[in-house]
Amino acid sequence: MHFVVLKENINKALNIVSKTLSTKPQMPILSCLLLRAKEGKLQILSTNLELGIIYEIPVQIEKEGEIAIPGKLLADFIATLQTDKVEFEVETTKLTVKTKTTKASFTTANISEFPPFVESPKNQRKLAFNKIKETIIRTVFAASIDEARPILTGVKTTLSQGKMFMTATDGYRLSKEQVSLEDTKEDIEIILPAQSLSEIVRIAQEVKAEEISFAIIENKNQVVFTMPSVQIFTRLIDGEFPNTDKIIPQSFKTRVIIDKDVFSQAVKTTSLFARGAANIIKIKIEKNHLKLSANNPQIGEDEDSVEAKVEGEETEIAFNFRFLLDLLANFPGSEVVFESSGPLNPGVFKPKSEKINFLHIIMPVRVQD
């Protein structure tokens, strides 16, 4: 294998692809990238067995071939080079990378150990990235990171009748959003890993994708997402997603409308005194304001008062402040509608504007007075 490539192109590709490499891989080969030079293109492949990426860039090929090489080292090395072009050449079991002033050799790995990629289906559905981007961002953060319940590490994704529905929950909170699409093909319902969806958004932003195509790979339990220069393969999660509709309250006793930024700042201030005290913030809903408080006997206590429009009963409820901050960091709109049916019932959060069909639920924390 022998080719010459623009440093700018390969540096961008390696930055994108190498971020998915495992830091503690199950197999040594998973810390490697596969470089495949063929028909005027260089394909750079990486996989962690859950997510696989193929990134393609144009190169000047002298000799076609493929090779596996430690990915992080190569990415870090290329990033340091001060040059326009970089030459790659394989000599026996070594890969030589050189410029006019620098020459380095890398030990290669056995390419037969690199996990195979399935062929991408040609018939794919197309989605406008600007339509789905925020919906993904506003749901993935509520998914679990605990592999003990794999189903909760995923996002239930349904396409039906020109709409996409996404739902994620870790058992303590729930994010749910609906967005209208132009897609009117057959209905599908799948569970996608939340981490894979986050990577898809990251990569789509880096390659400035306006459209994302995707297809389910039959009999492989995988989905492929395609955008300019890159294909992303991710496994599907098997199992039955919880019926989240039954935990969504259908009524409320108290309704609050509050400025998002003011509420967020109050939560941040109060949270300083909630750390080490189970991260609990109490919210007392009174006539025309909220009182946020936290108490840690070891460091002290804090109380913040925030103006709000309040309808219904006065009440008090407690939440894990980290869940509130996660929500507010991803919340659409400038005003938050917060509905409660009492201190032990789920808190419902949604935007005041009805243009965005987003709903978030946080389970309260039981506290002793």
From TrEMBL:
Keywords: Cytoplasm, DNA replication, DNA-binding, DNA-directed DNA polymerase, Nucleotidyltransferase, Transferase. GO terms for cellular component: cytoplasm; DNA polymerase III complex. It holds the Pfam family DNA_pol3_beta_2. Its main location: cytoplasm. It comes from the Bacteria. InterPro entries: DNA_clamp_sf (IPR046938), DNA_polIII_beta (IPR001001), DNA_polIII_beta_C (IPR022635), DNA_polIII_beta_cen (IPR022637), DNA_polIII_beta_N (IPR022634). Residues 128-243 form the DNA polymerase III beta sliding clamp central domain. Residues 246-366 form the DNA polymerase III beta sliding clamp C-terminal domain. One of its GO terms (molecular function) is DNA binding. Residues 1-115 form the DNA polymerase III beta sliding clamp N-terminal domain. It is found in: Cytoplasm. GO terms for biological process: DNA strand elongation involved in DNA replication. Confers DNA tethering and processivity to DNA polymerases and other proteins. Acts as a clamp, forming a ring around DNA (a reaction catalyzed by the clamp-loading complex) which diffuses in an ATP-independent manner freely and bidirectionally along dsDNA. Initially characterized for its ability to contact the catalytic subunit of DNA polymerase III (Pol III), a complex, multichain enzyme responsible for most of the replicative synthesis in bacteria; Pol III exhibits 3'-5' exonuclease proofreading activity. Belongs to the beta sliding clamp family. NCBIfam families: dnan. Forms a ring-shaped head-to-tail homodimer around DNA. This is Beta sliding clamp. It comes from Candidatus Gottesmanbacteria bacterium RIFCSPHIGHO2_02_FULL_40_13.
